[in-house]
Amino acid sequence: MQYDSKLPIYLQVINAIKMDIINERIKCGQKLPSNRELAVTYTINPNTAARVYQELEREGVCFTRRGMGTFVTEDETIIKDIRTQMADEAIVEFLKKINELGISVEEAVNMIRQREE
Amino acid sequence: MQYDSKLPIYLQVINAIKMDIINERIKCGQKLPSNRELAVTYTINPNTAARVYQELEREGVCFTRRGMGTFVTEDETIIKDIRTQMADEAIVEFLKKINELGISVEEAVNMIRQREE
Amino acid sequence: MQYDSKLPIYLQVINAIKMDIINERIKCGQKLPSNRELAVTYTINPNTAARVYQELEREGVCFTRRGMGTFVTEDETIIKDIRTQMADEAIVEFLKKINELGISVEEAVNMIRQREE
Amino acid sequence: MQYDSKLPIYLQVINAIKMDIINERIKCGQKLPSNRELAVTYTINPNTAARVYQELEREGVCFTRRGMGTFVTEDETIIKDIRTQMADEAIVEFLKKINELGISVEEAVNMIRQREE
DNA sequence: GTGGTCTAGACCACT
DNA sequence: GTGGTCTAGACCACC
After folding, report:
1. What are the percentages of helix, strand and coil residues in chain B, rounded to 5?
2. Residue pair A64/A58 in contact by the 8 Å Cβ criterion
3. Is the CB of D52 within 7 Å of strand E?
């Protein structure tokens, strides 16, 4: 994985895992790799891997069972919430930037459509 | 000015100045406030103000004449380029996130329109 | 290290490090001393040391991993490019001066050879 | 005239005038433009123009007669000395850089010849 | 431990 | 007065 040096690595890994969950590459209730495995697959420090799970747990995305490992939450609504929340954030941020640049929403929509053709 | 603690202050000031230029509150070739003035108006340290201008100069947004001050570039194309570049970045970033979330462009456009009503 | 007061210290340190890399006293991919170590060995302020690495990074000579340190780029071509680029600059500058002084290239070559005997 | 922002303007103007003298675009004993004229032709501040003549005078390149203006020295040996001194400086500096880069004199001479073809 | 940022205060050369 | 550089010391996030 390529890391963007501007963003903390642990946030980038968190994001990657969230995306895996949202896009169902990892299913609800499924076991996540151990700290050490995560550290290897993402070439990060074990401490950083631990922090990743810690944060994800704090957000309710996953939970840990002593001696068994870390699992994705079985509550599907949490996953959906995360998805809509991330979408919302993306839109708000985008509109803010567009507005600052003095570009109308219609113009922005046109630019988006052009990009996609 | 209110600063977002997530982003370095100098980047926020850089952005603010760019916006002033793009929206023609500051014109091409015009003199920018001195380091010390900038420091006062943005309530930052003169060193930070100096860094702001150094970065802007490196991006070609302004140039400096020894002992005379810092000026907005006289090349209008650079300003236009920066505007389109910033718009492009915003759009690309937005599409990337949307795509990661498995949201189609049409859906995204609808969501944008809803936000704005 | 003795500093030439005409040139900013940070540029002199940058140059010294580049020379260490070019002459393979420091190898590709190798870890560079930390900001604080550099500050001590070159008897400069840690801030100045940080600036040194920032500039070198901007030139692509090294990269930095958050919390881990600064490393020489692993791309050997960049190092070679820098060497040839520096040689080119030296030659162009020399020829420019020689030309301004109305000295022919052959004369200049002779003067160089005399100096070296 | 285009100024290199890295070097003080007054040094650049001094250099330009020296070159004019060396290449006999300005002859020995000839009157130089007044401070004000110099300021206009080089688009510099009159203070800077004054400094230029002050430095040139200090080096013996020119002298001033009260109320009459500034003149190039009538002593041709000074002009010749400056020329050889500048050539020497150029060569020494060049050899130093080449040496730092681990390039032999013969290689350097070849590179110079290639550049000129 | 590491780099990144920021403040404070100072000195200097240039215009 | 202007920008450029440097020191000193501090706090923070990251690994």
Report:
1. 60, 10, 30
2. no
3. no
**With contacts defined as CB-CB under 8 Å, which chain B residues touch A109?**
109, 112-113
| CB proximity A105 to B under 8 Å | yes
Dig out the tokens for B76 from the structure.
């209008």
Residues of chain C contacting A9 with CB distance shorter than 8 Å:
66
Which pLDDT score, from 0 to 100, does residue A117 have?
67
Confidence at A57, pLDDT banded by 50, 70, 90: very high
Query: What is the predicted pLDDT for the residue at C45?
Result: 96
On whether any CB of chain C is under 8 Å from the CB of D105, the answer is yes
Give percent above pLDDT 70 in chain C.
Answer: 99
**Nearest-angstrom CA–CA distance, D18 and D11:** 10
d(CA D45, CA D41): 11
Q: Does A97 touch chain B (CB under 8 A)?
A: yes
Is residue A21 within 8 Å of A72, Cβ to Cβ?
yes
Written as one string, the DSSP assignment of A17-68 is HHHHHHTTSS-TTPBPPPHHHHHHHTT--HHHHHHHHHHHHHTTSEEEETTT
CA-based nearest residue to D58, from D76, D73, D40: D73
Q: Which nucleotide has the least CA–C1' distance to C68? A: E2
Nearest Cα residue to D90 out of C117, C106, C108, C11: C108
**Percent of chain D scoring above 90 in pLDDT:** 29
Average pLDDT over residues D31-45: 90
Through-space separation of residue C99 CA and nucleotide F6 C1' in angstroms:
37
Write down the mean pLDDT value for chain D.
Answer: 89
pTM for the model? 0.85
Rounded to an integer, what distance in angstroms lies between the CA atom of residue D24 and that of residue D34? 19
Total Cβ atoms within 10 A of residue B68:
11
**Whose C1' is closest to the CA of C33: which nucleotide?**
E2
> What does DSSP assign to residue D85?
H
Using CB atoms, pick whichever of A19, A91, A100 lies closest to residue B112: A91
Find the Å distance, CA of residue D102 to C1' of nucleotide F1. Answer: 45
